[in-house]
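Exercise 7. Predict the joint structure of the components listed below.
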Amino acid sequence: MDRPLGEGGADVAVEALRFRRGARRIFDGLSCRFPAGRISVVLGGSGSGKSTLLRLIASLERPESGAIRVDGELDLARATADTLRDYRRSVGMMFQGGALLNSSTVFENVALPLREHTGQTEPEIRETVHRIFEAVDLEDVDDLLPGQLSGGMTKRAALARALVRRPRLLLCDEPFSGLDPATVRRVEELLRAVNRRFAVTMILTSHHVESTLRLADHVVVLVDGRAIEGASEEIRACAEPQVREFFADVAEASP
Amino acid sequence: MSAPLDGVARLGARTLRFVEETGEMARFAVQVGAALLRRPVRLRRCLDELYDVGVLSLAIIGVSGLAVGMVLGLQGYNTLVRFGAEESLGTVVGLSLIRELGPVLSALLVTGRAASAAAAEIASMVVTEQLDGLRMMSVDPVHYVVAPKVVAFVVSMPLLSALFSVLGLLGGYLVGVMFLGVDGGGYVSSLEGSIDVFEDVVPSLVKSLVFGVLVALIATFRGFHAAPHSAGVAAATTSTVVVASVTTLIVDYFLTALMGV
Amino acid sequence: METRARDLGVGLFLLVGAAAIAFLSVSIGGSTYRGPGGLELAVTFDQIGGLKPRAPVVVGGVKIGQVRSITLDADLRARVLLDVDQKLSLPKDTSATILTAGILGDQYIELTPGGEELLLGQGDEIEFKQDAFILERMIGRLIQNLDSPETENSE
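Solution:
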């Protein structure tokens, strides 16, 4: 029985965020909420800043101004390096391409966080890793290199690495990208199962509107550097012109 | 005409960029130095990198060393025989190799082979977000990826330079003694007589150590700060080879002057 | 395992590389002269030619020491300090000559032992010496000699 460490998922609140990359202003006073223990999805066109928002929440970048509050107290924008190191201990990130280390085996990749930061012995590490593999439905991948994995397996291995330390916050950048429809469905179910089993707050970015609306408890749509948020049904029925436009563009683009 | 003024402006911008970059590199070097002193010691990573940098360069170093030695033997003979001094062939081949060609040529060869590979590898890790992945796991990418590579270069360079020189001496012997009829004993004794440990071999090793450090830092810096797309990887790789090669040659002059020929 | 093969490769590389360094240092660089000799001798020359510090000091063709330093003394002559194997017994009337190895080679000092019973001790001065042979001077003198008989005859 997997009992999650800590008190369950983290609550993330973004307040008046301003961020610029080079000459381009990406966020100009963005505010939104990501409720604890729920699956939230960030939608938006290319260049709307979905990945940037995720990176800011991951603390890989710092905003110009504004706050990113975790559990109501920690402000990522003002945290010290040591505080961020502690914060990242409870965050798992699933990158778009998997971002697994190419020259290490899948087992070594997933075991790395355990080796670095826990005092677990080899047998304990082996057990933890295999338990995670089972949770994400991966088998017999221990000695494979990331280059030898299929698209779906790569996503699951990346997910395994993100989950191996039982994080309270799971960030997934385009978890469905590059997958065929059947695999997309499997990943969708897997993410839902992970959310239930580990009680972890999940924030996903995605282009796949249908999958995400099915999956999401909470939706944040990024338009013009602002956020329009609500539950799936609310967003789908939303009357805001820019949201309607976004859905129309997406409907046009998909076959 | 604004064209020449444009050119001057661009030159100024280039120079400023160069100074900026040198500053960034110095800061990077300090980061790497700090990482080298920090636990944990990643022995496994260092050994893996030693294989990539050292062992995989053995073939090119061996073949090139032999070839260069053979050319030295031939050219040296052609010149010395005019003064009737062909018995000193060992001296000519030995001094050229150990003092200059060994450290410099092996540094250039290692740059082309291993440094470009290291830059490309790190740059592609930037593009595929592998370094960000490490950061998210609270693993310092400089400590995990860069430091072991630097260790590998610093250890490998003097060893490869010595192997280059030894094979070069062999090449010179092959051509001079076996093909051109120089007396074998004369070759060896003129060689032994003119090479001194402290005056020749030690400066040679110091040179290759310095080259190792510089080439490693240049390659890892450019890879680390590559633009996050595939053109960035190519740019990091080619600029590494160019900058590292030129730097090696220029620093060689200063080292040679400093250590007193 | 693949890793073991790689590690073996690395180990071999390190061993072979270290052997190459050792070979260059000891076998080629070291030669017959091991470290400083211990016996310091001095000799003053008017002309040392191309003699340099660390140049060999030789007796009967065998290297027994090297030149430690060359300085100008108060009379503006070249004072050469030698560092020589202390196990040698060099008589007080030993002479020091600056010779050239080959025609264009480096210069070195050859010591020719004399017959006296008293030996040279630590810091002693070698009294007998012969300066370096400067090729250019010799050629210059030769040219002068070729010129002057003619001018004498023409007078």
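Discussion. Residues 8 and 199 of chain A are 6 Å apart (CA to CA).
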